[in-house]
């Protein structure tokens, strides 16, 4: 065995042969990159097109449109657990390829939608397809790489997904300006169909045979026994609530309301507001890699989740309830916010390490359900309270006070997440191999 072998060989041996190095060591990275592209593709669809592009000059339909766009999140949340179980049972090739196709069909349908119901249906289809992306990526990391690399590679997965999403979003915005949003969505949908074919013909679920670390559980009874253990584990639910209360509402704010908030409260031009958001995304991606590596190095996970949640809470309060400190200080606040919030990605590693590797996608799906559900609920509630404030005060646009009143629930969510983070069970970076220990 060489040092370059990417597989953890300490405890896992084939019954007949010892594990040997895969004849194509680069193949694991190829599969990994394709899963990153899938994730970035779904994130681009999640954030596209811009509300202003769909509304045009008619701002009166913004509430109905936001509800229609939220169908993506509710569909994503509803299908997380069933899809996680399916990926654990049948692997990362056929079903995720089908997920890409559903995303593409949703984009094509949305490009032809004339009503809010049509947009909601298209967004729901996209949300179903997108439910495969993150779960599939973590399943591939689990199957193709060492267990000690999981947290670090999860950080790289999140970072690359974020960076690619920025590039894809810039490309989509260009198409939106040149072709308008309908043709841009059609183009993205057709591109997805091509990508689905590429993904299906290249990706394998695991190295297979004598190259595998974790083989799929063939026995149905044993598989469902492990699945039941996932749902009976209290740490999965605690981690799900912690991540959901922190990152769900935060991303709901960043994806929809951060730019309108900054333009209204800080009186910043659109380009500056976009820059602040970009700083958040980039620092989140860098932080996910950094803290994933550091937590593994020192052998502790829980500490980073607790401190990251606390600092995120402080930064969010400073951003939502200014005085405005100027471009430089505000930029630093958004960078610290993204860097601190990235610690929550370690929570996925904690859940993974608390469960056996053969059912990686299912516990992650439970956690992600909370995350997406809180994002959808937060997005809807922010809209409801903003509209209510506008009606009460009879104002044509949202005001600073209305934004700050509506967004007060975000620090409250983070405070509950901080409290729950103290109840997380530390793994000390050890991967569970059986539910018997």
Automatic annotation (TrEMBL):
Domain Major facilitator superfamily (MFS) profile, first and last residues per copy: 28-428
Regions crossing the membrane: 26-44, 64-87, 94-111, 117-138, 150-172, 184-203, 230-253, 273-291, 303-321, 327-351, 363-386, 406-424
Any Pfam family hit: MFS_1
Example of a GO MF term: transmembrane transporter activity
One cellular-component annotation, GO: plasma membrane
Record membrane topology: Multi-pass membrane protein
InterPro entries: MFS (IPR011701), MFS_dom (IPR020846), MFS_Efflux_Transporters (IPR050189), MFS_trans_sf (IPR036259)
Principal location class: membrane
UniProt keywords, alphabetically: Cell membrane, Membrane, Transmembrane, Transmembrane helix
Record flagged with keyword Cell membrane: yes
Cell membrane as UniProt keyword: yes
Subcellular location(s) per record: Cell membrane
Name this polypeptide is given: Major facilitator superfamily (MFS) profile domain-containing protein
Organism: Simkania negevensis (strain ATCC VR-1471 / DSM 27360 / Z)
């Amino acid at each position: 065995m060489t040092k370059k072998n990417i597989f953890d060989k300490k405890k896992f041996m084939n019954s007949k042969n010892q594990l040997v190095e895969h004849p194509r060591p680069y193949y694991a990275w190829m599969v990994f990159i394709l899963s990153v592209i899938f994730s970035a593709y779904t994130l681009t669809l999640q954030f596209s097109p811009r509300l202003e592009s769909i509304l045009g000059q008619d701002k009166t339909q913004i509430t109905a449109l936001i509800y229609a766009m939220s169908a993506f999140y509710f569909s994503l949340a509803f299908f997380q657990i069933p899809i996680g179980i399916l990926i654990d049972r049948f692997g990362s090739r056929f079903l995720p390829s089908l997920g890409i196709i559903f995303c593409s069909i949703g984009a094509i349908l949305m490009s032809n939608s004339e009503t809010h119901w049509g947009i909601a249906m298209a967004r729901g289809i996209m949300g179903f397809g997108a439910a495969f992306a993150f779960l599939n990526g973590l399943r591939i990391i689990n199957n193709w790489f060492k267990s000690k690399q999981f947290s670090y590679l999860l950080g790289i997965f999140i970072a690359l997904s974020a960076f690619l999403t920025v590039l894809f979003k810039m490309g989509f915005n260009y198409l939106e300006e040149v072709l308008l949003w309908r043709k841009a969505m059609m183009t993205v949908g057709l591109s997805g169909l091509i990508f689905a074919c590429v993904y299906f013909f290249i990706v394998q679920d695991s190295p297979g045979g004598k190259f595998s670390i974790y083989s799929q559980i063939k026995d149905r009874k044993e598989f469902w026994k492990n699945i039941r253990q996932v749902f009976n584990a209290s740490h999965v639910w605690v981690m799900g609530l912690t991540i959901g209360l922190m990152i769900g509402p935060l991303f709901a704010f960043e994806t929809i309301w951060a730019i309108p908030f900054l333009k209204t409260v800080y009186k910043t031009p659109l380009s500056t507001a976009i820059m602040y958001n970009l700083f958040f995304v980039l620092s989140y991606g860098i932080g996910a890699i950094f803290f994933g590596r550091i937590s593994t190095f020192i052998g502790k996970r829980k500490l980073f989740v607790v401190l990251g949640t606390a600092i995120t809470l402080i930064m969010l309060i400073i951003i939502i309830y200014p005085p405005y400190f100027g471009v430089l200080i505000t930029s630093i606040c958004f960078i610290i916010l993204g860097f601190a919030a990235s610690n929550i990605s370690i929570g996925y590693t904690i859940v993974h390490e608390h469960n056996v590797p053969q059912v990686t996608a299912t516990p992650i799906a439970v956690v992600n359900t909370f995350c997406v559900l809180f994002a959808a609920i937060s997005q809807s509630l922010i809209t409801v309270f903003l509209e209510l404030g506008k009606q009460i005060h009879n104002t044509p646009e949202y005001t600073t006070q209305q934004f700050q009143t509506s967004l007060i629930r975000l620090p409250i969510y983070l405070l509950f997440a901080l409290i729950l983070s103290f109840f997380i069970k530390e793994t000390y970076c050890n991967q569970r191999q059986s539910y018997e220990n």
